[in-house]
Automatic annotation (TrEMBL):
Provenance organism: Streptomyces venezuelae
Domain of life: Bacteria
Biased composition (Pro residues): 69-79
Disordered: annotated span: 62-83, 194-216
Protein name: Uncharacterized protein
Length: 216
């Protein structure tokens, strides 16, 4: 893996001048692009494609503000981008990765990272509303919200929730074999900033929840 060069003095000045609430950066296009290449900033996917500090960029700014204090660890990257962690959708054919307390820690860390991503990328820095990454990774985002809330995914040995895509834009379907489980999943997603509605399945007489990321 290529070593990341430390920021230059000019880059540090830009980082230190970032908006204290949102982490939004100001500078020339060349300066901002250099920070993006250094993984100290990222571009918002929607126009005007402003640049914001990444967790690593926040750490550089924190180090400048309080050099005598140890810098906080940056939050983990979103689950689908980390290449290691993946929220369990309940559709897996076999269990992989950590189990028990280790899995609980992984899920909690990933959820905290996603909440931090919301703070950095939502225009109003809202932590209680899904961000663009979640709307681009609906199944993974909904599964992480459920698992972080303590809901149990299905696996080959036990029943539980299953998250799957739907033909509707920005909507996933969540199925759970019991009415209590369906209600618990809906409540967990609503607390995580999703809007939900319960529907009867066209076949089999069961029920499912349709969930979409809340925008306001």
């Amino acid at each position: 893996m290529r070593a990341v060069k430390p920021p230059t003095a000019a880059q540090r000045r830009i980082i230190e001048a970032a908006d204290p609430r949102t982490g939004r950066l100001s500078g020339t296009e060349a300066q901002l692009q250099a920070l993006v290449r250094a993984r100290l900033a990222f571009r918002h996917p929607r126009p005007p494609h402003a640049c914001f500090l990444t967790p690593a960029g926040h750490r550089v700014r924190d180090e400048a503000a309080a050099p005598a204090s140890p810098a906080p660890e940056p939050p983990p990257a979103p689950p689908a981008e980390s290449g290691v962690f993946a929220a369990r959708t309940g559709t897996e054919t076999e269990r992989t990765g950590a189990e028990g307390p280790a899995r609980v820690r992984e899920v909690r860390s990933a959820w905290e990272g996603l909440v931090e991503l919301r703070r950095m990328t939502n225009p109003d820095a809202a932590r209680d509303r899904p961000c663009a990454w979640e709307r681009a990774h609906l199944v993974q985002a909904a599964a992480l919200a459920l698992e972080a809330a303590g809901c149990r995914p299905a696996d080959p040995d036990r029943p539980g929730y299953r998250v799957s895509p739907t033909p509707q834009p920005e909507a996933v379907a969540v199925r759970e074999p019991t009415p209590e489980g369906i209600r618990a999943c809906a409540a967990a997603l609503e607390r995580a900033g999703w809007q939900t509605s319960e529907h009867a399945e066209p076949r089999g007489g069961g029920r499912c929840v349709l969930a979409s990321p809340r925008r306001v």
